Amino acid sequence: MNLYRGLKMLRVMLLWSFIWCVLGAQENIQSLIDAAKKHYPLHKNAALLQNALSLNLSSLNTRYIARTKFASKVSYQSDVVTLPFNTAALSGMGLHLDGYTPLSKDQYAFTLEISQPLLDMGISASKKMALAQYESQKSELEVSLYQVSKAVINVYFQALLLDSQIKQNALHIMDLEKNYDNIQAQYKNGVLQRDALTKMRIQIISAQKNDELLRTQKAIALDSLSALSGVDSIILESSGLQMPDIELQKQYLTQADTKDFMLRPEMMYFSLKNKEIATRQSVENAKNLPHIDAFLQLGYANPSLNILSGKFEPYYIAGVRLNWDFSNFYTLRTERELIQNARLQLDSKKEEFMLQTAITRNEMIKSAHNLLAQLRENARIITLYEDILRTQEARLKNGILSINDFITDINNLNLALLQQKYIEIEFLLQIFSLKQLHNVWE
Fold first, then answer.
1. What does residue 99 show for φ and ψ, rounded to 5 degrees?
2. Domain check: are 147 and 269 in the same one?
3. With CB atoms 3.0 to 4.6 Å apart as the test, which of 103, 111, 117, 403 could cross-link to 299 if both were Cys?
4. Residue 219 belongs to what domain range?
5. Are the C-beta atoms of 109 and 301 separated by less than 8 Å?
């Protein structure tokens, strides 16, 4: 029994520990962006690129291994090498060429050659090219994954907006219910008609219905955020999303136009792609250099090295060989022009990126400043609506205000408060879009 109680208590403690951890750590936007990059299907390509690089380098390393080549040849030729004197006359003079057999026009050769590369600049250049391509492709993947942050930011602040609307709607319902109780008391005292109660009840029901709609929309937003980040929507709902400090974001706005785009993954991509193009030039240069290898050739042929024997004999040849293919010089100029063309195209893409990003940043900064101005104006409007509502509540109690006018004033204040929340979230969205534009999150 004591063991059972102990296990039960342990389960309860673990459950509460889990709940405390979940509720105690709100999800912030940066952690969700990092999670989304790792969760996004394209992230799998990072391992594939690494594997492809390893295979490519392994393949290039095999070019340093000794090569073995077998060749055979059977041929018939119209003429062969012959001695430049009459063998019959030599025999009459008592000179005999023992073992001499004239060459046959049917000839056979079987060779096995083993060669070991000693100098091949093309292998080294190809390795550098493989590494440069890997780095640029990995950087290009980072650029693609970086775009996920835009989707996370949009969905994150959509969920925050809906959450703030739910909270404001709850306050609105509480305010309506409080006024419903006041109207009910006035109805009992004969100050107001029954239709005032009915109209206020309709407002409460409408607000409750709106609450259900907002919660459904929030659940959809959290599901989208969960699909992007891989974090369970239940955890997102339980822990909540962290609301950024609006004052800190205002400070960021004052410095936004001084920040550059050097931390953007696109800038790293342009740099690495330019390095890849330069390495491509090295590969082309290496094609025009000589290749040196040591070789051993084993053969069995008729005729063999001693062509006067006129029979099948084994032989071998060993040495060092230099090969220099001059045909690559014919296309060298064209290749250099192609490489220069690729470099110019890359520079154009970089300039376009810088221009478009700068234009977008200026638009975002102006929009953020405009939203701040709207926040200030809307705050003044809310203060005026609150003053009006306090006056209207007193008039309603005295029976000199219609219920329709009172409901209109309540709804006007609620709409102004909702508008204030909307502008705040829109401002935060603009700031974090600016941070995404700079890739600066502090």
1. 80, -5
2. yes
3. 111
4. 27-64+121-288+326-438
5. yes
